[in-house]
Write a structure and sequence with these properties.
Elements (H helix, E strand, L loop, with lengths): L1 E2 L5 E4 L6 H12 L2 E4 H9 L3 H8 L1 H15 L5 E4 L8 H10 L1 E7 L1 H7 L14 H19 L2 E5 L4 H14 L3 E2 L2
Parallel strand pairs: 2-4, 2-5, 3-4, 5-6
Antiparallel strand pairs: 1-7
The structure holds shikimate-3-phosphate.
Length: 180
């Protein structure tokens, strides 16, 4: 299978929408390289996203995120997973919307809750009422994901291998990818 029109795919969506799992599977099927902005930030700084939030604060993390996105969004041949908050800044939304095929993975809240039940790593999820928090994030960020997305795919708790078939079928139907 081959990607048409764009040189790379960008995955957007909230925490626990399956950007990493589905991104890796998608990259494999399309012969592209998988990268993740959070992981790239952790590689260059040598510390976790959680520690960056703790020591430098969220705005400094967002600066690092924008810089990483600015660089990687120019790189061809990628499936790039972005952090859930990457769409907050206009400059990021413009980079995403103009430089690649943007897929919005839209999970239901039950799926997000299930997948993050044991999460101790994501800074924004610690010490909050997760259900209310996910609802609030959906309310404020869904329009931003929609704004940049070429394709929106609903995601539920199906295993990645099943979900990826639904994603690929959708991309093929809309002719973003070709069969050969
Ligand atoms: C964030 C999502 C995280 C990470 C950071 C902030 C957010 O990425 O970038 O903790 O604001 O939603 P994932 O969506 O990969 O969990």
């Amino acid at each position: 299978m081959k990607l048409r029109q764009y040189a790379s795919i960008f995955l957007v969506g909230p925490m626990a929408s399956g950007k990493t799992t589905l991104g890796k599977l998608l990259a494999k099927r399309l012969g592209l390289q998988f990268l993740d902005t959070d992981h790239e930030i952790e590689k260059t700084t040598g510390v976790s996203v959680r520690l960056i939030f703790e020591v430098e604060g969220e705005p400094a993390f967002r600066d690092r995120e924008s810089k990483t996105l600015e660089t990687l969004s120019h790189q061809p041949g990628l499936v790039l997973a972005t952090g859930g908050g990457a769409v907050l800044r206009l400059e990021n939304r413009q980079a995403l919307a103009t430089r690649g095929l943007v897929i919005y993975l839209k999970p239901d809240i039950e799926t997000q809750l299930k997948r993050t039940a044991d999460d101790r790593k994501r800074p924004l999820l610690q010490n909050v009422d997760r259900r209310a928090f996910f609802q609030e994030l959906q309310r404020t960020r869904d329009p931003l994901y929609q704004e940049v997305a070429d394709v929106t795919v609903s995601v539920d708790n199906r295993p990645g291998k099943k979900m990826i078939e639904a994603v690929l079928a959708r991309l093929q139907r809309q002719e973003w990818i070709t069969a050969e």
